[in-house]
Specification:
17 helices; Cation:proton antiporter; membrane; Cation/H_exchanger_TM; transport; transmembrane
Length: about 400
């Protein structure tokens, strides 16, 4: 019964936010801030309107669908042709800055949480490495910020979750194998099959699905209304196709998006329309679930070390690797600092954390790890949300100086 009440509350939240979303935007109040805040308000930490377990079927299904669509959309909206022309800065961020961030996060974790096992520390660093450009929407949408900077932040956000995910499932498999005392070879073979078969299945679905859509558009067989519904069907089809061949459905969704979005400009446009409407709605509901279900479960485990790590994760552990990897790129220090700050932790970290909690069955034994994720994301939602437009304005004035 409580799940029906929660669905009703979510519907009311969506309706209320929809009415005043433009008004709130004037005060730099974003959708993720509103949905997370209202989730907290109705949660046991607030009005205690109802309770929702993070391992409930409703949460599991929502998380899986949301992650499938996020990975699919992020990959699809990457213009590989454009990326080939200006790949150097994103490549530095993804192939130098990202590994340094993971290593730095793991080392910092060992210092702050000396009793936490190495694999748990690595898992924590991986969950908190992907960025979510949507939390600083003004930075990636406002033309006062140079196009190259906006594109760089978008590309990093779109690709880092897809790069991190195979490593994440490898670490989760290793931890699970240790818990269940499985032979090392078993989980390594399992992970290899997940990645390879998942990638192949996704690429096939994405390519064939996009080609079929182009053919149908050319022959005028498709009704306009259904063009934006194709992405969700392709993403879900890729997910389940991979599962059938023992691949990972989430990796399949990412590769399906990568192929579908780069098959034609028309297909990418429809995916973008979908991501900005139906996709964004599901993401906002995930932020509500984060505030409503995930934060209350981990709140009691927030301690001084957790706060220290969360603050470091949003500042030094993110910004220093980015600045280091951009040295020698001909960018000035203000641009490097601007890109370094706008690495918000949001939907990918939330969905990864919920997925890991589901894989482990609960957060028991990993309370500190999930408390760090909770606090880091919570702080990021508001810190990056409020700072996006003011810092974009400040940065644009700086670069316009003679």
């Amino acid at each position: 019964m409580e799940e029906h009440i929660i669905i009703l509350v979510i519907a009311l939240v969506i309706l209320s936010y929809g009415y005043i979303s433009n008004f709130l935007a004037r005060y730099d109040i974003s959708g993720p801030m509103v949905f997370t805040g209202l989730g907290l308000l109705f949660s046991p930490l607030g009005l205690h309107f109802a309770e929702l377990n993070i391992d409930a079927n409703m949460v599991t299904v929502l998380v899986e669908i949301a992650l499938v669509l996020v990975l699919f959309s992020d990959a699809a909206l990457l213009d590989l042709g454009l990326l080939k022309q200006s790949w150097k800065i994103p490549a530095r961020l993804l192939f130098i800055g990202l590994p340094i961030t993971v290593v730095a996060g793991t080392i910092a974790g060992k210092i702050i949480f000396p009793d936490m096992p190495f694999l748990d520390l690595l898992l924590l660093a991986l969950i908190l490495t992907p960025t979510d450009a949507a939390l600083g929407k003004a930075v990636v949408s406002d033309p006062i910020v140079p196009k190259t900077v906006r594109s760089t932040i978008n590309v990093e956000s779109g690709l880092n979750d897809g790069i991190i995910f195979p490593i994440l499932i490898t670490v989760v498999a290793a931890i699970s194998a240790g818990i269940n005392h499985e032979p090392q070879g078993n989980w390594m073979i399992y992970v290899a099959k997940q990645i390879v078969f998942g990638g192949l299945a996704g690429a096939a679905i994405g390519y064939l699905g996009a080609r079929a859509q182009l053919l149908c558009l050319k022959k005028e067989w498709m009704v306009e209304t259904y063009r934006n519904l194709v992405p969700i069907a392709l993403a879900i089809l890729a997910y389940y196709s991979a599962e059938v061949v023992s691949g990972n459905g989430f990796i399949a969704a990412f590769f399906a998006g990568l192929y579908a979005g780069n098959t034609s400009e028309s297909v990418r446009d429809h995916i973008e329309d979908f991501a900005e409407s139906e996709g964004e709605l599901l993401v906002l509901i995930s932020f509500f679930v984060f505030g409503f279900a995930f934060v209350p479960v981990t709140w009691d485990y927030i301690s001084a070390p957790v706060i220290v790590y969360a603050l470091l994760s949003l500042t030094v552990l993110r910004m220093l690797p980015v600045i280091l990897c951009l040295l020698g790129s001909k960018l000035d220090f203000s641009t490097m600092s601007f890109i370094a700050w706008f690495g918000p932790r949001g939907i990918a970290s939330i969905l990864y954390a919920l997925l890991v909690a589901h894989e482990f069955g609960s957060i028991q034994g990993y309370e500190q790890l999930f408390a760090v994720v909770t606090l880091t994301v919570l702080m990021s939602i508001f810190a990056h949300g409020f700072s996006a437009q003011p810092l974009a304005n400040l940065y644009s004035k700086h670069i316009q100086k003679p």
